[in-house]
Design goal:
Blueprint lengths: L8 E2 L3 E2 L5 E7 L6 H11 L8 H12 L4 H6 L1 H6 L4 H17 L2 E8 L11 H21 L5 E9 L5 H10 L5 E7 L11 H9 L5 E4 L5 H9 L5 E4 L7 E7 L2 E6 L1 H8 L3 E4 L1 H6 L15 H6 L4 E3 L4 H4 L3 H12 L3 H14 L4 H19 L1
Parallel strand pairs: 3-4, 4-5, 5-6, 7-8, 8-11, 11-12
Antiparallel strand pairs: 1-2, 9-10
Helix pairs in contact: 1-2, 5-6, 7-8, 15-16
């Protein structure tokens, strides 16, 4: 984890933390504060591996460096265990938004799976309402403190389960009460979007926006299913889209590539990639290209004109923030302020908001980056 404040700065002392940001891929159960886990676990008599917040944070990092998605996801058993009551969900959602504000986020989408929070008697609708209560409390607190943030819920169905149509109906039911979109998540390999075609058909008839986890733990076929079966407007991660990019030759003048049909489709239609660099390293999503951030195909996709966005995926599991992810990418690929603004404008244009709101968001980002330029 980056500890030095200097590593969060660009040349000329530009503070990345102060820049306006858009967070599109940020899991609620992946961003619970370690101290909150300890306190809520104690209240329900649930054992935790560490009783000190710093040590628990380190435990998450160590467990999540397994190099594969399946083991990475096992850590969520701990965070979801303390998210089974209205009080717990509301507190965690409130703190989550507070952390977004501290990270400079001006628009955030929080994704989470209500079906995983029914263990203590809550209904699906009650879980969504509890999370919305916490979001609204934090927004109100931010406004009183002089900050401004918009937040929407992304309701997620677990791709290995059989409740996606029910969860899709839940999302649409709350579309005017905080929910802005739908997602499927969980173990990707062996569970393509096509298994949930009924849910996606329903969402299409309701004109409800969809993002799909694809191209993280599986390849081009999974991405294709997300686009075809899921009608995905964004790709959750999507990093393995780079498998559909072929390097034809490389010389002193540059690298020459050709795009396969899926990559070409994603590029031509400006389908946003919700890339999460640190998480992609932890889960082994970029293993075929290397094990360091400089090996991540983020820059290749950017140079080829894809609509890259920067995301944290899971703040607690990766010990990270958007500020940190932007800093790491700037260091790895020598990005400057203009590059970082491109990624934030990409995210603003891909947000599940009405057009007019996206245009206002773009103006907020432009103004914030212009101010940083002095």
């Amino acid at each position: 984890m980056v500890n030095s404040a200097n590593e969060y700065q660009l040349p000329r002392g530009i503070d990345i933390a102060s820049l306006p940001k858009v967070s599109l891929h940020d899991h609620l159960d992946g961003g619970v504060r370690p101290q909150t886990i300890i306190e809520l676990a104690d209240a329900i008599g649930f054992d935790v591996p560490e009783s000190d917040a710093d040590r628990l944070a380190d435990w998450f990092l160590n467990q999540c460096d397994a190099g594969n998605l399946v083991d990475y996801l096992k850590t969520f058993d701990l965070s979801t265990a303390v998210m089974q009551t209205k009080e717990g969900l509301t507190r965690i959602a409130r703190e989550f938004v507070e952390d977004l504000v501290l990270d400079g986020v001006v628009y955030g989408e929080i994704r989470w799976a209500p079906e995983q929070h029914l263990g203590r008697g809550l209904s699906l609708d009650e879980t969504v309402e509890a999370v919305q209560d916490g979001i609204e409390q934090a927004i109100d607190d931010a406004e009183r403190a002089g900050s401004s943030i918009l937040v929407g819920q992304l309701i997620t169905a677990m791709r290995h389960a059989d409740r996606s149509l029910e969860i899709a109906e839940l999302a649409v039911r709350h579309r005017d009460r905080g929910v802005v979109g739908f997602d499927i998540a969980g173990a990707e390999a062996g569970f393509p979007a096509s298994r949930h075609r009924l849910a996606f058909d329903y969402l299409a008839t309701e004109h409800f926006p969809v993002t799909v986890h694809a191209g993280e733990a599986d390849g081009i076929d999974s991405i294709n299913s997300a686009l075809f079966d899921g009608r995905a407007l964004r790709l959750g991660h999507g990093v393995r889209l780079a498998e559909d990019v072929t390097v034809e030759r490389s010389d002193d003048d540059g690298i020459y590539v050709s795009l396969g049909p899926v990559a070409q489709w994603v590029k031509d239609r400006e389908i946003a990639l919700e890339l999460s660099p640190s998480s992609n390293l932890q889960t082994g999503a970029i293993a075929q290209w290397g094990t360091d951030l400089v090996d991540h195909p983020f820059d290749l996709l950017y140079q080829l004109g894809f609509k890259n966005t920067i995301n944290v995926d899971n703040r607690t599991m990766s010990g990270t923030s958007l500020t940190r992810e932007m800093s790491l990418l700037a260091d790895a690929f020598a990005y400057d302020l203009d590059d970082l603004e491109v990624f934030q404008q990409n995210a603003a244009s891909a947000a599940f908001l009405p057009l007019e709101d996206r245009e206002e968001l773009a103006e907020v980002i432009a103004a914030g980056f212009d101010a940083a330029r002095g």
